[in-house]
């Protein structure tokens, strides 16, 4: 009998799981609270570690359930301190998760799907076809893997000393195409007795799935980031094909109506800088005109190249001129420092290159074996 993971279950689902092993009523709710604490506050990886739970119940839990993490296929450390994990949840079910340490924060970039359907032209991740949505447990497990590696569980640790302070749903996939599982995972992340992250430190990034944006604000309440990347529809149609369905004006109208939008809860617009494509002064002026009236921050992202990429990164001088226009219009416009490029962990580089490299290595090994079998 395969074991059921308790990671990612809601509190009521966890209580129901306990009822299945004979723990019922108020006792089920109490035991669920204890187990919830051990999983998310203390990072327990086995039921045996749960010393406040009776030995008899621990034994029953171990017979039916598991707290097992995904397999870490590869763990890489960049020269700049960025960490990347390639995680396997089953045959062909692999994602990458990235941790970016900074002086005042530690940001974990989490995936919501295996692959992607959006085919954004500048994004290497988008070259991998969608395999499936991740479950809530698989999304939460990425945070647990990082906290395991960083010894960073909340129990007994002051908030200011935690290493994972922010989570961004900016890894592989479009979060709003996996709404229910993303919502459940974020609820666990934001639970004060769960992973204890403020919703103001959790950011959900979308390429512009307009019908789901209002619902995300109402039901999830995380910070919103929008992968904009162009101010002209004819350019965004190519860079982000979803624009053909929901054009820039339609997308920005949804942003203006985002529940809870204010100067304290600004929308972040992501804008990758592509040489000769979207980086002119005219583009910058049109961008600020389009965003008028939206409390916003604009992240300018130097393009992270990958083998066969159809674009080049804008020259630094052009990026600075672009930023000057945006700043002069009153928008915070930081230029994102590329992190983890040496391990293909930068924005838009996740997973595809790992697949490619491992496939190449497998081919080389097979070819070597064939040569050895050949007569001399």
Can you give a write-up of this model?
The protein is of the alpha/beta class and 376 residues long. The protein is built from eleven helices and 13 strands. The strands form three sheets. The chain has a nine-stranded mixed sheet, with helices on one face. The protein has a two-stranded parallel ribbon with strand order 1-2. Helix 9 links the parallel strand 12 and strand 13. The longest helix is centred in the C-terminal third of the chain and has 22 residues. The chain is elongated, with a radius of gyration of 22 Å. The termini are far apart.
Tell me, what is the CATH class of the largest domain? Alpha Beta
The separation of the N and C termini measures 50 Å
* Strand order within the widest beta sheet: 3-4-5-6-9-10-11-12-13
Q: How many strand elements?
A: 13
Main sheet: strands, sense, barrel: 9 strands, mixed
Number of domains: 2
Q: Which structural class matches the secondary elements?
A: alpha/beta
Residues in helices, as a percent range: 25-40%
* Unreliably modeled segments: 359-376
The proportion of residues in beta strands is: 15-25%
Identify the CATH homologous superfamily of the largest domain. Answer: Aldolase class I
Give the ordered list of helices and strands. EHHHEEEEEEEHEHEHEHHEHEHH
Shape: elongated
CATH structural architecture of the largest domain: Alpha-Beta Barrel
Q: Write down the overall mean pLDDT.
A: 88
Counted by DSSP, the helix tally is: 11
- In the CATH scheme, what's the topology name of the largest domain? TIM Barrel
Radius of gyration equals 22 Å
């Amino acid at each position: 009998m395969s074991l059921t993971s308790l990671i990612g279950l809601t509190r009521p689902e966890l209580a129901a799981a306990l009822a299945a092993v004979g723990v019922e009523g108020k006792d089920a709710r109490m035991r669920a609270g204890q187990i919830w604490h051990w999983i998310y506050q203390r990072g327990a990886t086995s039921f045996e570690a749960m010393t406040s739970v009776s030995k008899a119940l621990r034994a029953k839990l171990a017979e039916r359930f598991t707290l097992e993490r995904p397999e870490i296929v590869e763990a890489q450390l960049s020269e700049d301190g960025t960490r990347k994990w390639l995680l396997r949840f089953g045959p062909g079910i692999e994602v990458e998760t990235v941790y970016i340490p900074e002086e005042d924060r530690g940001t974990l970039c989490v995936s919501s799907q295996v692959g992607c359907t959006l085919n954004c032209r500048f994004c290497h991740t988008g070259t991998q076809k969608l395999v499936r949505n991740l479950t809530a447990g698989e999304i939460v497990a990425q945070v647990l893997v990082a906290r395991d590696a960083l010894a960073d569980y909340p129990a007994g640790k002051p908030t200011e000393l935690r290493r994972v302070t922010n989570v961004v749903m900016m890894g592989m996939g479009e979060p709003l195409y996996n709404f229910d599982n993303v919502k459940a995972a974020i609820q666990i992340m934001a639970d004060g007795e769960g992973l204890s992250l403020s919703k103001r430190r959790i950011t959900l990034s979308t390429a512009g799935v307009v019908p789901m944006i209002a619902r995300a604000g109402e039901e999830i309440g995380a910070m919103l980031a929008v992968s904009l990347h162009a101010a002209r529809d004819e350019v965004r149609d190519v860079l982000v094909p979803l624009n053909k369905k929901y054009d820039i004006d339609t997308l920005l109208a949804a942003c203006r109506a985002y529940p809870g939008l204010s100067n304290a809860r600004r929308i972040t617009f992501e804008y990758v800088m592509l040489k000769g494509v979207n980086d002119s002064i005219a583009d910058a002026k049109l961008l600020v005109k389009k965003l008028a009236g939206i409390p916003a921050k604009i992240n300018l992202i130097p393009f992270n190249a990958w083998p066969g990429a159809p674009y080049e990164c804008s020259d630094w001088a052009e990026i600075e001129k672009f930023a000057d226009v945006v700043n002069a219009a009153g928008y915070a416009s930081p230029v994102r420092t590329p992190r983890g490029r040496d391990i293909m962990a930068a924005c838009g580089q996740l997973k595809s290159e790992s697949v490619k490299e491992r496939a190449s290595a497998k081919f080389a090994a097979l070819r070597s074996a064939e040569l050895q079998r050949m007569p001399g």
